[in-house]
DNA sequence: AATAAAATTTAGACAAATCTAAAAAATAAA
DNA sequence: TTTATTTTTTAGATTTGTCTAAATTTTATT
């Protein structure tokens, strides 16, 4: 039997993993705000994760996932993203309504379940938000992407990922018909507020703020 | 937002519902043994369920589900059985390996998820064990389910469940081309050893022993 | 270097779900 | 109808995860 961890512990591992990826480093306060909880609760949990050897931690000095902790985090992320893919591709959910549900489904234990699901879905490489899905060994293919602020004007590109994945930004993008795989190009950048005008084929131009642009990643053939 | 109950409470509701269905009545000890827990823990939980108006309970006098408790129990059962159907029909699990996983999946909250799943599966009426799946209003179609010993002669019926689920009986039934969904009728009952002769369309008659007949359940429309 | 501010941890509490041991009530047997 | 047995409930603990308030440590500012 594979060791099982509580949903709460799995959520902490996942949060720590994400923060480690973005900044190189994580703090107690970072985790507290990511998890919508109190710093004192984070400290409590850090001790428990350390006791389970999922975390390297010395009080006041900082912490990071152990090799085992990282492995567990990647499996939760794998489950989260496969379930999101399932919800969108098989149950016709919108990409902006699957995160909450996947947040629960990711804690279902069976390894066989998730490997069968992966197979059923045809071994998808990325989830509905463009994020890579780790394989059953916890590996993923790194795709390099640029955010829209850094996409050259008039360069055709394809949306390949979203940074911030709040329901709010997804709703906004949805409304403007911007989604994974959307082909677009930047027509104008306004220096005043760094807003950007985009053109999607067969649509009238749309404008997005700097805040949004920073969170939309695209890939394009750079010759 | 629909009220949410803990997995533990949902499991208790389900257990109480099942015991109510089988016997007309449930006791603290029944629940304890069904849930693999202690009578004292059951009493603790009965008080909590009563406080939430899911249970009608007076100490030492007995208890039963309230209308609301029954409704909740039926929704958990609906989810359990739909997930079992999904696991068998879509992920190619054996019918003998899905129960444990469904025991976890049944606690996922989203109502939309389960209704979409139902639709995706084509609104199945029974789970892989032949048990009826309640619809989204908690209703199920009452089809008379009897074992083959009690099926009237010449009454067309459909195999809807197997009692004993050992590999041995499954092998025997498999050999005789009897499985879930098989349409058949009883042509003759032999008083000598209670063996039974069956007819399946386009096949020559087959005989099964009393022991086998007792473990094959069928349903038929009772007019 | 001394002080102020911020981050982190500890102390002590609470709710949920479970347990063991003991008490109380209901039921069965004598 | 007493007495014995079984069932059910209570009392008091324990574990997990969370919280507030206070103490401690680190970091930033004079
Ligand atoms: Mn989660
Ligand atoms: Mn995602
Ligand atoms: Mn369950
Ligand atoms: Mn079943």
UniProtKB/TrEMBL annotation, chains A, B:
A GO cellular component entry from the record: cytoplasm
SMART domains hit by this protein: FeoA, HTH_DTXR
Stretches assigned to the HTH dtxR-type domain: 1-66
Localisation per UniProt entry: Cytoplasm
PANTHER family linked to this entry: IRON (METAL) DEPENDENT REPRESSOR, DTXR FAMILY, TRANSCRIPTIONAL REGULATOR MNTR
Function of the protein: In the presence of manganese, represses expression of mntH and mntS. Up-regulates expression of mntP.
Protein name per its UniProtKB record: Transcriptional regulator MntR
């Amino acid at each position: 039997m594979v060791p099982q961890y509580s949903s709460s512990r799995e959520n902490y591992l996942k949060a720590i993993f994400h923060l480690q990826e973005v900044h190189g480093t994580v703090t107690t306060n970072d985790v507290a705000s990511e998890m919508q909880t109190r710093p004192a609760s984070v400290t409590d949990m850090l001790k428990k994760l350390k006791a389970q050897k999922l975390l390297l931690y010395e009080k006041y000095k900082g912490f990071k996932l152990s090799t085992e902790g990282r492995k567990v985090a990647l499996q939760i992320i794998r489950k989260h993203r496969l379930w999101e893919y399932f919800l969108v591709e098989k149950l016709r959910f919108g990409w902006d309504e699957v995160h909450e549900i996947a947040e629960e489904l990711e804690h279902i234990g069976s390894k066989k379940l998730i490997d069968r699901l992966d197979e059923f879905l045809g071994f998808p490489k990325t989830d509905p938000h463009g994020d890579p899905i780790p394989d059953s060994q916890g590996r993923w293919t790194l795709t390099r992407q640029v955010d829209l602020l850094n996409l050259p004007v008039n360069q055709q590109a394809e949306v390949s990922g979203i940074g911030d994945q709040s329901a709010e930004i997804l709703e906004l993008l949805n409304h403007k018909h911007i989604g994974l795989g959307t082909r677009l190009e930047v027509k104008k950048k306004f220096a005043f507020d760094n807003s950007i005008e985009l053109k999607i084929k067969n649509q009238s131009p749309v404008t997005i703020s700097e805040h949004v642009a920073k969170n939309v990643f695209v890939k394009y053939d750079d010759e």
